[in-house]
Design goal:
Length: about 280
């Protein structure tokens, strides 16, 4: 029961990141570069404080795997912030976690088990849903670039999830990734025209310190209790939560296109992940 509650809290935190980023960037309270930078710095500061007060807490930075996790987090953060210049919170989360699920499925399939028929069909249906979500309509020409940024963010998050498997100290590992992410994001701070209103500062700090820093630490903590398939499946709830939160908090509309894409992505990936595995030595 405790694991279920912690997983639910983590998924809500992930969905809130979409809503907070969208509210700040699209609401004119922050530009994408400034929001991403403050978000990472706030997350790093909180995690370092939490780690420092814990006995035996150690932030490891001289590790190739930690640097890989920091780079993956940077790809996610940059793509995530720039995507919400033109994407709604629910649609952005749909593209993000649809990409994550397909990526994790392919990683599992080609590193362990040969994909079976149901897995291939499920992945194909999920890709069809992603194409529907990615296809720009005439009313929002900026949607295509936002979708591409979110697709990159999804690849980064999938790599970040894989980098955290087997972490013995979830908080310390997450702190390492946030600290090592900052050099990659520093390039965003040298461009002119950075802007943050007081509301933007508040939203970025809230997103970085709570729903990102502590939320990602919680994600690494629950991963050992979630086998590969379950870890992928539970994240399918995030787009639905984000769509509901976006509608409630940002008055975003829920159109037929988003509903259809959500059904295809969730249904297709669920089929691919829940289907029986092909026994070793069989095709």
């Amino acid at each position: 029961m405790r694991l279920v509650v912690l997983v639910c809290l983590t998924m809500v935190a992930f969905a809130l990141n979409s809503v907070l980023n969208r509210a700040a960037v699209d609401g004119g309270h922050a530009d994408a570069s400034a929001f991403a930078s403050v978000r990472v710095l706030a997350g790093a500061a909180v995690l370092l404080m939490v780690t420092s007060v814990r006995r035996g807490g150690r932030v490891e930075i001289f590790s190739r795997r930690r640097w890989a996790g920091g780079a993956a987090l940077a790809v996610y953060m940059i793509g995530f912030s720039f995507a919400y210049i033109s994407l709604d919170a629910g649609l952005g989360a749909l593209i993000l976690f649809g990409t994550v699920q397909v990526s994790l499925f392919l990683h599992a399939a080609f590193s362990a088990d040969r994909p079976g028929l149901f897995q291939i069909v499920g992945a194909s249906v999920a890709f069809a849903g992603l194409l529907i979500a990615l296809w720009p309509d005439g009313s929002r020409m900026g949607g295509a670039s936002g979708a591409l940024f979110m697709f990159a963010a999804g690849l980064g998050w999938a790599a970040y999830t894989l980098a955290g498997r087997g972490a013995r100290d979830a908080t310390a590992v997450t702190a390492s990734h946030f600290v090592l992410c900052t050099p990659f994001l520093s390039i965003l701070l040298i461009q002119p025209g950075l802007s943050l209103t007081p509301v933007g500062w508040g939203l970025a700090i809230l997103s970085g310190a709570v729903t990102s820093g502590l939320g990602y630490s919680l994600w690494y903590a629950v991963l050992p209790g979630l086998p590969g398939a379950r870890a992928a499946v539970v994240q399918l709830s995030v787009p639905i939560i984000a769509i509901l939160l976006g509608a409630l908090m940002l008055q975003e509309s829920v159109g037929l296109k988003v509903v259809l894409a959500a059904v295809l992505v969730v249904g297709g990936i669920a089929v691919a992940l829940i289907s029986p595995k092909v026994p070793a030595g069989r095709t």
